Amino acid sequence: MNTTGRKVIISCAVTGATHVPSMSEYLPLTPSDIRTQAIEAAEAGAAIIHLHARDPQDGRPTPSPEIFRQFVPEIAEATDAVINITTGGSTRMTLAERLAYPLLAQPEMCSLNMGSMNFSIHPVAAKIQSWRYGWEKDYVEGMEDMIFRNTFKDIKHIMLELGGKGTRFEFECYDLGHLYNLAHFVDEGLVKPPFFIQSVFGILGGMGADPENMTVMRSTADRLFGRDNYHFSVLGAGRHQMSLVTMSAIMGGNVRVGLEDSVYIAKGVKAESNAQQVRKIRRILEELSFEIATPDEVRAMLGLKGRHEVTP
Questions:
Q1: Contact, 21 vs 59, CB < 8 A?
Q2: Residue 71 is inside which H or E element, if any?
Q3: Which of 162, 164, 232, 224 shows the shortest CA–CA distance to 196?
Q4: Residue 222 is assigned to a structural domain of this protein
Q5: Could you tell me which residues come within 8 angstroms of residue 280 by beta carbon, excluding any fewer than 6 positions away?
Q6: 22 found inside a domain
Q7: Is residue 234 within 8 Å of 256, Cβ to Cβ?
Q8: Can you give the CATH number for the domain in which 204 is found?
Q9: How many domains does the chain have?
Q10: What is the pLDDT along the chain (312 residues), one digit of tens a residue?
Q11: Angle in degrees, 0-180, between the axes of helices 211-225 and 176-187, rounded to the nearest 10
Q12: Is Zinc set as a keyword in this record (predicted)?
């Protein structure tokens, strides 16, 4: 997109399905915690709020529509942020489970992983001395032998089912080939610009957090789609979060932060909330003379259907 006078989109991924409770006491687990942290992040400047659900009893990821309903409508009522619901869920969920709530809610946005992949944080298990809940250790160690599945047929199904209801996508690209997968679906006529491309760096199984990889992703997206047809955004996992998303803004892109992506605010210091990360990146961006996009500006930039078209 033309960068003249542009504004930067801040997305916030509030809890995710990868980090486990033992990794941070600040990770929101209950509907109340997720709701509170999401609202605070929106108030801090996040225009897009990306949401997963967790079982309030032990914090494990869940696709349950009943649990989603305990916080999503209240977030929508309390903020004007764009609500972005995961279709990725976790590696333990079936496609039907992952789509259970999105198909009911028909949100303005959903995340969409652009391919099957090894996706793991299993080396983290060796660093955790005490586990808060019994399910966590097997969950983290088990990632070594798990594949996140999103076949071409799965992706097509999601595009048809949700795209047919006016939902647009955060295309999560963990590798260069994922851009080519998106280009395939563009050629098939299943998605149309403007595309919101979330490049993911630093996840084991995907691209490493090397700045050079960002340049390759950006130039490849330019070649495949044309810069005027997409918005580039970056997610940096773990310790790479702030440096990589800042680089994204400098390269004409957008940023994503949140406890789904990193449980830290600085080296060795845990973030106490999602809003703390949003405030930090907003301060960095504003000190670099970038303006922050509002939710309604994001709706216009991404061609979203608007809040009035979303099922309560």
A1: yes
A2: none
A3: 232
A4: yes
A5: 242, 257, 265
A6: yes
A7: yes
A8: 3.20.20.70
A9: 1
A10: 444 468 999 999 999 999 999 999 999 999 999 999 999 999 999 999 999 999 999 999 999 999 999 999 999 999 999 999 999 999 999 999 999 999 999 999 999 999 999 999 999 999 999 999 999 999 999 999 999 999 999 999 999 999 999 999 999 999 999 999 999 999 999 999 999 999 999 999 999 999 999 999 999 999 999 999 999 999 999 999 999 999 999 999 999 999 999 999 999 999 999 999 999 999 999 999 999 999 999 999 999 999 888 865
A11: 10
A12: yes
Give the count of beta carbons closer than 10 Å to the beta carbon of residue 140.
Answer: 23
Write out the two tokens for 269.
């210091």
Residue type at 113 in one-letter notation: N
| Residues constituting the chain | 312
Q: Is residue 196 part of a domain?
A: yes
Are the CB atoms for 15 and 259 separated by under 8 Å? yes
Residue corresponding to tokens 């990146």: 281
Tokens of 285: 């961006």
